[in-house]
Every structure is written in structure tokens, then in C-alpha cells.
Amino acid sequence: MSVFADLHVHTTNSDGELTLDELPAAARAADVGTVAVTDHDRLHPDLSTPVAVLDGVTVVHGIELRVAATAFRVDLLGYAVTPTPALSAEVERLQADRVERGRAIVDCVEDRLGVELDLTVREGIGRPHVARAIDAHPEVAYDFQGAFDHLIGDDGPCYVPRDVPSFERGVALLSDACGLVSLAHPFRYPDPAAALELAPALDAVERHYPYGRSVDVSALDRLIADHDLVPTGGSDAHGRELGLAGLDREEYRRFRSAIRL
Questions:
Q1: Taking each helix axis from N to C terminus, what angle separates 167-177 and 85-113, rounded to the nearest 10 degrees?
Q2: Is residue 62 within 8 Å of 80, Cβ to Cβ?
Q3: Contact 206, 9 (CB under 8 A)
Q4: Residue 8 to residue 188: CA distance in whole angstroms
Q5: pLDDT the model gives residue 260
Q6: Within its chain, how far is the Cα of 36 from the centroid?
Q7: pLDDT tens readout for residues 9-24
Q8: pTM (two decimals)
Q9: Phi, then psi, of 129 in degrees rounded to 5
Q10: Are 46 and 69 in contact (CB under 8 A)?
Q11: Interatomic CA distance for residues 188 and 175, integer angstroms
């Protein structure tokens, strides 16, 4: 499928590698006409409107918000953001928690490995920042993936959980501030069926995603049809390559028409 809209992209505002200025060139290199910036728990300060055009590329201002469901945590994607005081306050709280958590993870890694990481703990910090610093350290044997596998992954000795809002509060915050709210990557969770049970409370669900393995989406497609959900999709890009997954032109037209502006 030809990807026209990559609706799941991270920038240096959170834990991606692309700056906002670099985004249009990366989109053109992938032949992508529309990109959604969905930084983790953070609004992009240089996107002042829900949808903008930057150097010929349509950019949707979004956010990826982690929330606590009953059995596990899931990620929500809010699209076409017009910040509300409540969402802005929650984002500020989440960023303070990220900084505190980031310091705790870095301290644990440094103590465990007996090294100092060349990493500034700041707003927007995520575990990929720590993994890159571990990978880049000349005295450490772990690469990026090894850092997650052995140190900072969910079961790792240096893992520190974040304080996230409940699913219900996250949905309320995003519904008030965004034109459309989607469940991100439903087949990445420990129990995909339970995750999909959350989708009818939302506007949309991420239909296209680069899982790196075969996924049976028949149940997802039935859910989309039964509840009139909007299919979304994106590459979840943290690096510089876009267009690994996303919507074709016709799917993007439906997405665009569904956004409440």
C-alpha cells in the first residue's frame, strides 16, 4: 500500500530524532504528503494550530498519551489539538514526572554499570534517550536494544514506572482538546483482545502499524465496521525514516473529514 499520511511520528520534542524543521524533507523523501506529530505526553510548542502546512507538507498537531486501563497501560493518540487548560496542566505534570523518572533510571544505570552517561535529563525525556546514551558509551557493551533487553525494559533492573492518568481521564482530556482520539497499536499490548474492548469508547483505532510480524486484523476490521470507528495508522517513527505504515489517500480523506475542528 502506498502511504500518503503517516499519522504517528515523534520529534526531538520527545524521543524522536527529527526536528520539526527536518520533518518536511523526511516526508518528501518517503513520498508522504501528511504527517501527524504525536510526541509522548507533550504538545509541540512550535505547532500553534491543529493542522498546519510546513514547506508543502500537511502537519497535524497530535499527542500520544499513555493511560492506565484496568489490566495494563495503553497509548491514546489525540489528533488536531487545540490545548485546553486541563490538558496543558496534565502535560506539565507528566513532564515533571518524566524528568524525575529519567533521573532515577539514569542514576540506576550509572550505578549498575559504573559509568557516567552523557545525557541531560530534560522535559520530553524517554527511555530511548537513555538507550541511545548507553549504546554510545565506549565502556558499555550494550547496544540500543540490549539496553532495553537487559537494563531499562519493563522487566529490567533499572525500569522505573511513570505516573499516568486513568484511561477514563485520558479520554476525557483528549476528547475535549482534540478533533479525534484513537487507540494506538492494539496488537502491541499483552492482551490485544482486552485492548480492543477499549476502542468503542474512542473515535478511532490504529489500523496500520509496522509490528514487524504477521498480525490478524480481522477482529479489528469487524470492530471498526461495527462501531463506525475511523481507521488511523502510522509508522511510530522515532528515527528519521517515515512512511513505514500509514493511510492511503482515500483513508486519509475519511480521517480528515472526521476531525472535529
A1: 130
A2: yes
A3: no
A4: 15
A5: 79
A6: 10
A7: 999 999 999 999 999 9
A8: 0.90
A9: -60, -45
A10: no
A11: 23
Take residue 239 and report the three cell numbers written for it: 528515527
The residue count of the chain comes to 261
Q: Is 78 helix (H, G, I), strand (E, B) or coil?
A: strand
Distance CA 257, CA 249 (A): 12
Q: Is the pLDDT at 261 greater than 80, yes or no?
A: no
**95 Cβ neighbours under 8 A, 6+ residues apart:** 41, 42, 123, 124
CATH numbers and ranges of domains, the chain? 5-82+180-258 (3.20.20.140)
Rounded Cα distance between 64 and 218, Å, is 25
Amino acid identity, position 36: A
pLDDT in tens, 142-189: 999 999 999 999 899 999 999 999 999 999 999 999 999 999 999 999
Q: Which pLDDT score, from 0 to 100, does residue 211 have?
A: 97
Query: pLDDT value at position 141?
Result: 93
Grid coordinates in use for 54?
510546513
